[in-house]
Amino acid sequence: MKVGLFDHLERSEDRALATQLDERLEFISAADEAGYYCLHVAEHHSSPLNMTSAASVWLAAVARATKRIRLGPLVYLLPLYSPLRLAEEICLLDHLSKGRLEVGIGRGVSPYEVGYHKIDHDQSREIFIDAWECLKAALADNLFSYKGPHYDYTDVPLPIRPLQQPHPAYWYGSSNEVGSTWAGEQGLHFASNGSTDKAKTNIDAFRAAFEKRGSALSPKAGFAGGAAIGLLRHIVVADTDEEARRIAKPAIEHHAASLNWLRNLHGSTEFTSRNNVHRGVDFESWEQNGMAIVGTPDTVLAEIRRQAEMLGLNYLIAYQFFGSMALSDAKRSLQLFSTEIMPALAEV
Asked: pTM for the full model?
């Protein structure tokens, strides 16, 4: 099993955003040295949940501060982009990172966020699929044409090409069976989240569709079957279970407040059940659902092994610096994880 990192970089009121950005670069550099596979970053808008919503800008800075770790928006919200403009960004970022880019794509889980951009959430999947087909065409050659219901290009030159040929690998993250099945049909690399039971439903749906397809769009030799099958988990490791829980509880609850911020602003719960997104506000519910894995190296390793066996994973996406967590606690957690847990996971 390989291990990557995930991040929203949510707003923390106890320090300046510039300080937070510097802390993240220090933390990611440590992960780079420790051998983490990839940094995956979210894209959210108009919310304290995500201060790096311009993923290409942020990852360009990260690319210059790291050497080996791969870099992946998880995801670019395709309905919010011009496919031509995004194709150019992807090519540039692939060169800036010296071929370390992993391209995650998605429609956007929040109706409020896409709504601020004048996108009807009920139409966003149709727009997303059209944008996806257009983006693939744009990255396939240095002159492209495409005609769909929302995007129409004729003989557009694209003199900048990706460093990785024919294109960087594509990823999809989903919290529901519809998206999971679609990702498998497309042969994309995949990540799920949510409670262990719901993640199993999503991963099973992905695997069934992927096996029917037969191969990955961009096979990766380092992952069994050629495709990453990943799971996002909030992970805190400390020298004792008690210390880990002391760190994790306020950090998780800060993070939960950020996740719920827009929903609370709009006074709605409608989209929560529709997208299988856990919105519990207390740490205990996150731990009970298997979404937060907290404790000593032995405690954390045992739970990761349990979930990996249950779900059939070959990739763990560890969210290790979140909420109100201090840099020192996050770096100690990363050190313990990388030295005492990652070597054992290589055999899982």
From this structure: 0.95
